[in-house]
Amino acid sequence: MKSYHIARPIGLLFLYSATLLFSLWASYLLRFDFHPGAEYLRRFDLIAAFLIGFKLMMLVAYGQFGSLLSYFSLPDIRKIFLAMLTAAVVLLAVWFWQGIAFAPPRAVILTDFIVSFVSICGLRTGFRLLREGYFEKGIVSIAPRRRIGIIGAGDVGAELVKELTYRRTGGFEPTVFFDDDRGKWYTQIHGVQVIGAPEDIPAFIRKEPLDEVVIAMPGASAKRIREVVRILTECGIKFETVPSYAQLVTGKVRVSQIRPVEIEDLLGRDPVKLVTGSIRELVEGKVVMVTGAGGSIGSELCRQLANYGASVLLLIERSEMQLFLIEQDLKSLGVVAVIVPIVVDIRDERRISEIMRSYRPALLFHAAAHKHVPLMEHQPFEAFQNNTMGTIGLAELAIENGVEQFVFISTDKAINPTSVMGATKRLAEVFLQALQRDGSEYTKFIAVRFGNVLGSSGSVIPTFKRQIASGGPVTVTHPNMTRYFMTAQEAVGLVLQSAALGRGGEIFVLDMGNPVKIVDLARQLIELSGLKPDLDVEIEFTGLRPGEKLFEELNLDTEHLVPTEHAKIMQFLTVASPLAQVRASLLDIHLRTASMEPSMVKAEIQKLVPEYRPFTPLTATAGGQPL
């Protein structure tokens, strides 16, 4: 390794020196019609030594000895130009000051500037073409290359062609561009012609078949992506897409790392702008505890907290397999924070207390919960014990151990709940607000509500994918059912932003955009699988399950909605109840309901959450709201 670091600059010195010597000699020959006089030849060695030495110094000054020869781009061209121009200007100054005795003629100086610039750029370009395998393009490959069309003739599409053509990545042969911009039609990009709009694909492939189409429009609207996907599905052609803008700007992925089109691409939400400075100020250098660290939200919290500079991450999770997966994921990402995976149930207060005393977390993000709505309907006491009482115990331990901020991950199902899951989350919110009012002077408690997370465990999307893979039918509860959806990255980013905004006692709700019809979601997933809804895969309506609503609501009638400093985060203002009253009521339910029938447990919870309407087959109307 050491010999390599020595050999590389020596090799650069030799190549640059030889190129500059050739350029100077060619300039003399051009100036004197290939017959320079004897008086010029006598001074050539001295002038060459001075001029080449000075040019090499300029190349060093402009960073050309620190870059690899084969990585050559526009910034390098500018630096080489400035280096050669500086040398030429200095030599002209010497000529005007001392005359021809110390410098070559002016015509040689100007010619040498041009020739040396072109020669150095040519040298670098040659090495780049070698690295990219350009000279192998004419060699017939044994492996067949797949003809692909590219939708999107912008910067991303152009970069994709370069990657696939010159790096010969993935066995693809870019064949044709399609783009919505009429101004680009009948032009070429890196030798690939733009022939029309995506709507022209069916006519094109009838004449010239394509093996695949890549959608290279990361900035396009979800509506346009859906239209394009429908065209490609009807053509029966395989299609994929490039990484999102958010992935590309990190530099961790290349445009050539194409992937299948996901449902997230079709739902399409505008990228969320976060005030990252305030989040970093909240998190950086602190010990942070995350409960439910192996879940969809908990694991994404861990990733983003690590990116914002948490010094220690306490991963609290009762599933050892989920805990193992997030630990390995964080290590693979090169997280510098100390990762402490701990298998423990949040209801084990003695063990949780020991952990807090040992590590002294400053921030606690509570994402552990029972969240499966129909499953919890059959065991409401378990939901109450985990979602409500577990939160109570954790919050009180946070006060005892000096936690600065406690962030509770709530749900939009806590609003006018029809499920026991939503009702138990609502009870936890009520307790935290009471605790903030009467029981906490130091620890700040906030709750953040949001809707469904795309692709999370137990959500409809993994279920639909399994049903499609098995040939269907895809089961949807009701043709009019809608839900709000967010990606885990978006939801967690806004949770952290809410934490930075929180002063204690707030219930924040995230802007979840427009509701999505579940049946439309099912149809889009079927189409993404290259199949046709109701033809290849049937959609079957099964009716509302216990605890489900047709649509989710945004706020309680008794809550007042106000904006916050962030456009995607709102706050609900409510009057907190006295802590002693709330605590006594919850403890009373906990003591009395352990052995009760599910319906009786729900009735007891309803006494504390008057807006809760337990779901039964007799309580659903045509509109989906409880009677």
What are the SSEs and their pairings?
Blueprint (H helix, E strand, L loop, with lengths): L1 H30 L6 H24 L12 H25 L7 H26 L14 E6 L3 H12 L5 E7 L9 E2 L2 E5 L4 H7 L4 E4 L6 H14 L3 E3 L3 H5 L13 H5 L8 H8 L3 E5 L4 H12 L4 E6 L2 H13 L5 E6 L5 H11 L3 E4 L6 H5 L2 H21 L4 E5 L10 H19 L5 E6 L2 E2 L6 H10 L4 E3 L5 E2 L1 E2 L1 H14 L5 E4 L5 E2 H11 L10 E3 L18 E4 L5 E5 L5 H14 L5 H11 L19
Parallel strand pairs: 1-2, 1-5, 2-4, 5-6, 7-8, 7-10, 8-9, 10-11, 11-12, 12-17, 13-16, 14-19
Antiparallel strand pairs: 3-4, 15-18, 17-21, 20-21
* Total helical segments: 21
Q: Quick one: CATH superfamily of the largest domain?
A: NAD(P)-binding Rossmann-like Domain
Percentage of residues in helical conformation: 40-55%
Radius of gyration: 33 Å
Unreliable parts = 1-6, 138-142, 617-627
Strand content: 5-15%
Number of strands: 21
Lateral arrangement of strands in the main beta sheet: 9-8-7-10-11-12-17-21-20
For the report, how would you describe the main beta sheet?
9 strands, mixed
Assign the structural class, choosing from mainly alpha, mainly beta, alpha/beta, alpha+beta, or little secondary structure.
alpha/beta
Quick one: CATH class of the largest domain?
Alpha Beta
Tell me, rounded to a whole number, the average pLDDT. 82
CATH structural fold name of the largest domain: Rossmann fold
The end-to-end distance, rounded to whole angstroms, is 76 Å
CATH architecture descriptor name of the largest domain: 3-Layer(aba) Sandwich
User: What best-fitting shape do the alpha-carbon axes yield?
Assistant: elongated
